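Bit of a strange request maybe. I'm writing a small parser for C-alpha cell strings and I need a real example to test against, not something I typed by hand. Could someone generate the C-alpha cells for this chain?
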Amino acid sequence: MLRRLIPVFNPKSIAVIGASRRKGRIGRELLHNLIEYEYQGKLYPVNPYAEEVHSIPAYPSILDVPDEVDLAVIIVPAEKTLEIVKNCGKKGVKGIIMITAGFKETGEKGAKLERDLNRILKKYGISMIGPNCMGVINTNEKVSMNATFAPTQPLRGRISFMSQSGALGAAILDHADNIKVGFAKFVSLGNKTDVSGNDLLMAWEDDPDTDIILMYIESFGNPRNFVRIARKVTAKKPIIALKSGRTEAGAAAAASHTGALAGLDVATDALFEQCGVLRVSSIEELFDIAIAFSNQPLPKGNRIAVLTNAGGPAIMTVDALVGAGLELAKLGDRTRWKLEDILPEEASTKNPVDMVAAAGPREYEHAMKAILADRRVDAMITIFVPPIVTKEIEIAQAIAKTAKKYKKPVLSCFLGRTEDSPGFVHLTEHGIPSYIFPESAVKSLSSMVKYRTYLEREKGRPRTFKVDRKVPKRIFRKVAKEKRTWLAELEAFDVLKSYGFSTVRTEVTDNLEDAKKLAKKIGYPVVIKACGEGIIHKTEIGAVVLDIENEKDLVSSFKKMVSNVKKAGHTPDCILVQEMVTEGKEVILGMKYDNHYGPILMFGTGGIYVEYLKDVAFRVAPLTDVDASRMVKSIKAYPILEGVRGEPPSDVDSLIESVLRLSQMAVEFEEIGQMDINPIKLFEKGAGYKIVDVRIAIREC
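Reply from user aminoacidic:
Good idea to test on real output. This should exercise your parser:
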C-alpha cells in the first residue's frame, strides 16, 4: 500500500488541473500553498484559459504537458471530472487528489458519477484521495508538499493525521499550528472512493516518517478489516482516534436486553479496545495525548508521582489519577530523606509532594532528581501555580533540564497560565508536554499507560470448536420459510445444544396433563414458562413460575400463569417445563448483529435487572481466547465470580469457553439478528454452568 501511494505522497511532478489566477479561488490557493511550502518537484498548472498561472507556464489540458506527471490535483466542476480522469489515465498519471465536490454526498446523481469515476480509476490503475476533500500534505523535506487549500502552513513533525472532514481538517491544522504540533503527513479523505482510512493505516504502518497516527473518523468502510489492520499497526506505533456519532436512536425499543444495551456506540469502543486504538472525545484531547506520545517515553508501569507547589491542584490530580486507574507511587525512605534535606519543614514529602508556595527552581530541580531516581516511580506530573514572587520561566527551565536526565515520562501543568505564556512555551519547545489543567495531564498519561499495557499483553488466538451446523441451518431455514422473526424456545435451545452449550433439561407441552408427566420425568422442583408471540420479558407479566415442588403446586401455578398471560393480552402457544436450578451466579451472554460492524457480543451480570445495572462488556466478533477472557474479567462484578467473603470461585473457564462458542456461532451464522442467553447459572469452579433461558431472532439477509 505504501508503494501504491508513492505517486500521492512522493510525487516528482504535480499537475494542478483547475489552477486559477483569482485570489480566493481554491485552484489559486492550492497552487500558492505548493509554491509557498517550497514543493521540491515540478509544477504544471492546467487551465485552458490562461498562458501562465503564478508566473508558471500553464497548459490547456493534462495531455498537453510535455513531461511525465506523477500526481494530478483536480479542482474542476464535478461534471467535467470523468473526462479529465480519463485523460490522466492516458497520460500515465498514477495518483490523483480530487478536491472537487458534488458526488455521493449530493444524492443518487452524484453517487452514479462517483461509481463511474471509480471504474475509470480501476481501468488505469490510479490511486485517488477524495473526492470532496481538502487535500494532502507531506512535510518530508525531500518532498515539501502542501497540496491543500488550508490557510495554515503545517509544521514538520512525526505525526500523521487522517480526517474524513475537510472543514475539520482545516481547523485541526490551525489548532496544531497554535500549539506548535508538527505533522509528517496529513490526509483529508473525503468520500473515500478509492483510498480509505484502512489503506492509510497500512501505508503508515512502516512509514519511517510516522511515529504516531491520529484519526478523525465519521464512519468505517470495513470495520472487520480495520481490526485486523489496526492490530498490526498498534503493535508498532500508537493510533489515537476521534470517532463521531456516539448515539443511536431507537435503542430503547429493542426487543432484547442485548439489543437495548448495544445501542450507544458500544461497537466502536469494543472495536478500539480489541485492537489497541486509543479513543478520545474531543480534538483538544486528541492533541493533548499526541503531544505526550510524541515527546516522552512510555512509562514502564502505572505508579505516578506528583510534585507541586500548591495542595489544591495536587488533590485534584490524585483524584484524577485514581479515577483513571493509575496508582499513586509510594516513595522510598531514601527518597523522602533527600526531600526532607532540600524542602522546608512545612512541606509534605509523601506523594503527592507539596513543596509549598515558596518553592523555586532549585527546589523543583532537586525534588525531581530525588523522585525520578526512585525505582518505585514510573512517571511524574509536575504542577506549578505561579505566585507573584517566582518567575515561571525559571521553573520551566528547571523542569525541562531535569526531565531530560531520566528515561521516565514527565508531564507538566502550569495552572492558570495560557498556551502562549513564557513558561508554557519553554516547556513545549523543550519536549515537556504541558497542560493548563491537571486532568488533561492525567488523561494523557493514562493513555500512555494503557498503550504500554496493550503492547505487553498476550494477543491470543481464535478457537474453533467441533459443532453440528446442520441443526441451526435447518431451524433458521424453517423460521425464514414461515416468515417468523423469533425462534420458538425449544428451537433456540436446540441451536445452543448443537454448538456445545450446556442447558437445563427442557420439555414442551400445550396442556396441563402432559405438563404433569413431564415434571415427573424431569424431577421436582421444576419451572414452567409460557411461550408465544409477544411474550418477551416473562417476569413482568407473570409468564414464569419458579421452584414448583409438587404436582399440586404445578396445577395451581399452571392455571394462574395462563390466566396472567391472557390478562396481559397474549395467548400462550406452548408451555416449557424445565428443571429448577437454584445454585449458581447469574450472568448473561448475548449478541446483536450490526449492519456495519457485524456481530457484537455482550457479557455481563444477568437476571431481570440487566438493563438497570448495565454491568456489561461488549466485543466485536470474532474473538480470540484473550479477547474473551478480558471481556469476562472487565465487568465490575467480576470479583464476585472469583469468590468473595469466603465464597468459592465460579467456573470462569467454562464461561470464557461459552463466549468463544457464541463468537464462532455468530460468525458462522450471520442470519442471527439478536440473541439473549439469560440467565446463565454459573456454578463453582469445575462444575460448569447451565443455561436457563434463551431468545434468538433472525434478521432479513
